[in-house]
Amino acid sequence: MNSVIKDMVLEHKEDITDSWLKEISKFRSDDMLQNISDKMYENTNLEFVNILILTVQKTNEELEHDELIQFVEKLIQIGWPLNYITRGLQEFRKACVEIISNREENSHNNLEFFKKIEDWIDDIVNLLVTQYSGSWENTVFLQKMALKELSAPLIPVFENISVMPLIGTIDTERAKLIMENLLEGVIEHRSQVVLIDITGVPVVDTMVAHHIIQASEAVRLVGAKCILVGIRPEIAQTIVNLGIDLGKFPTKSTLKKGIESALELTQREIVELKK
Amino acid sequence: MRIPILKLHDYLLISVQVELDDQTALQFQEDVLEKIHEEGSRGVVIDLTSVDMIDSFIAKVLGDVVDMSNLMGARVVLTGIQPAVAITLIDMGIVLDDVPTALDLEQGLDRLQLELED
To answer: Which part of the chain is the STAS domain (chain B) (predicted)?
Structure first.
């Protein structure tokens, strides 16, 4: 970092800090930070500005392992908005430029000087935004994985009979997963009949129906039967209104009826015990 | 390359152990029909467990074999179609509509018995 700037910033450290703290406190109400105690807020502000001022002495490489990163990671963990960071840095830049250009005669209106300050702050902005978005991407990824695990389980309920309960919206990616799990599961459990339960699927449009039809065709090819169960009245209405032809494979209104007909297909039945 | 066709009482058992190319498939079609004629078989099981890939031509030939055998009075069951193969077929829009299928050879024979009882 340019030594001139470094000296100037360090020299006017107190003024910059004061000015920044004054500006940042104005934003407190719209940053969704009201429920944080005053003391905590002030301490964090103070820590933030001190770390920021210290970064002027560091090179870019050093920045990446700086306590700034640790500080931001702490903020991410306790859930402070990115807004706070970007606004804080904008105000910090304003404070630096204002105070230094007021106090130092020779740097007044010097374009080079402004550029130096900009470079310095912009690097920090980039670093911190990357840090934040990285943590978000990570969260999204973990949630996606969790969703995927819950997405399409195939449960063997009787010998040769398995059930796949589907809950939630079905998109193309999930439909692919459903088909794979379905086929692998059929082979693994040696199922003759598979029940696909769509009780938990909120909307069945042409795309979803298409995926379900494809899955059941594929199941038939590997040598099992597919029964679609859990068709609610509103789903039945949409299916007919959309003109989707489900005539080729059996459908039942509830899982219970589906299981009964699956048992029938495998030459079994449920009988009550006589006491 | 010719695919061996085994006779078991009234049935023919065929296990496809090689990758099917167009020539092999056509030869296979001819052999099956010839064998049905020779033995007067009532049922055929074609096991595809070790087939990893089926293209549209092979799928058509298989469908034809099924239709032709039916014409000659022999019911055909396809068994052991792998998940990957099933997905490819569905993606290509080939549904092999009227072809009975079963999970493996054992269930295929049961299925054939069922079909012949009807």
So the answer is: 1-112
> Residue B13 is which amino acid?
L
Q: In the CATH scheme, what is the code of domain A155-265?
A: 3.30.750.24
- Identify residue B99 by its one-letter amino acid code: V
Domain with CATH 1.10.490.10 in chain A: 3-148
If one counts every other C-beta atom within 10 angstroms of the C-beta of residue A82, the result is: 17
Q: How far is Cα A226 from Cα A195, in angstroms, rounded to an integer?
A: 6
pLDDT digits (tens, 9 = 90+) for B47-98: 999 999 888 899 889 888 999 998 888 999 999 999 999 998 888 888 888 8
Residue pairs between chains A and B whose CB atoms are closer than 8 Å? 53
Residues of B in contact with A217 (CB under 8 A): 90, 95
Chain segment B3-52, per-residue pLDDT in tens: 999 999 889 999 999 888 999 999 999 999 999 999 999 999 999 999 99
Q: Does A154 touch chain B (CB under 8 A)?
A: no
Chain B residues whose CB is inside 8 A of the A161 CB are none
CATH superfamily ID and name for A3-148: Globins (1.10.490.10)
List the Cα angle B115/B116/B118 in 5-degree steps: 70
What strand order describes the sheet that includes A225-229? Answer: A155-158, A161-167, A193-200, A225-229
Task: Name which of B83, B96, B104 is nearest A183 (Cβ-Cβ).
Answer: B83
ipTM for the predicted complex: 0.76
Architecture of domain B5-117: 2-Layer Sandwich (3.30)
The rounded distance, in Å, linking the Cα atoms of B96 and B66 is 10
